[in-house]
Specification:
Methylamine Dehydrogenase, Chain H, six-stranded antiparallel beta sheet, four-stranded antiparallel beta sheet, 17 strands
């Protein structure tokens, strides 16, 4: 009887292990990590990035997505492709930022050093060489494709969530600051070397900035905040 029980226990163990190894992710496909950013480079080709080093790519306008190895388990927060082949991703794990770069259309990614150890939330490149990343307390720029980085704005009271450039020289960064004070909108007219603070008129956290052209732009934030400018950021209306 003892031998029979041992045999049955062994059988259940083997069946259990075998059944466990057969489980595969089914819905949503191809994975289930939180996705934080998406960017399309044409009508068919796009990329999405997210937590645990997730990179997804589509070549059929989003009908299907395939996973791409990022080489990291850091959370990835933002993706930008200035050309079809060259792309950049920023993210972080705890308080350590990371920058990834591809030169083969997202097939492989290399880890770059940003020279900044804080969390990185957003990236924007106007061409393959000139780019800007923003995060906790700082704005950092590069002019050589990420080989070297230059922190051009640092303030321990500011947390930047989004950056957008309308040209190689003109760009905007938005985020949050100390409670009870207006959230920051920063503008550069020299490629990120210096930044001027604009009035947002709101203390709500600002999460994302986008411009249709050099004059017309939008910012969204917490509690349903939507801001609009029609004069290049000098004035914003709710």
């Amino acid at each position: 009887m003892l031998m029979k029980k041992l045999f049955l226990s062994f059988c259940f163990f083997v069946i259990g292990v075998h059944a466990f190894t057969q489980w595969t992710w089914q819905n949503p496909l191809p994975q289930g990590n939180c996705l934080n950013s998406v960017r399309f480079i044409d009508v068919n080709t796009g990329y999405a990035v997210g937590n645990n080093g997730t990179i997804l790519k589509t070549t059929d306008a989003g009908t299907t997505w395939s996973t791409v190895s990022s080489g990291t388990t850091y959370n990835l927060n933002s993706v930008c492709f200035p050309t079809p082949d060259i792309g950049y991703i920023v993210g972080a794990e705890s308080y350590f930022g990371i920058v990834l770069k591809t030169t083969d259309g997202g097939t492989s990614w290399n880890i770059l050093s940003s020279g900044y150890f804080g969390i990185l939330h957003s990236v924007y490149f106007t061409d393959s060489d000139h780019g800007c990343v923003v995060g906790d307390y700082a704005i950092v720029i590069t002019s050589d494709g990420g080989v070297t980085w230059n922190p051009t704005f640092q303030n321990l009271a500011y947390l930047f969530n989004s950056v957008y450039f309308t040209s190689i020289n003109i760009g905007y960064a938005v985020g949050s600051t100390l409670p009870g004070t207006d959230s920051p909108i920063l503008k550069t007219i020299n490629g990120g070397l210096t930044w001027d603070t604009l009035s947002s008129g709101t203390a709500n956290i600002l999460f994302s900035v986008f411009f249709m052209n050099t004059d017309t732009g939008y910012i969204v934030g917490s509690t349903g905040t939507i801001l609009k400018t029609v004069d290049g950021g000098f004035h914003w209306i709710t």
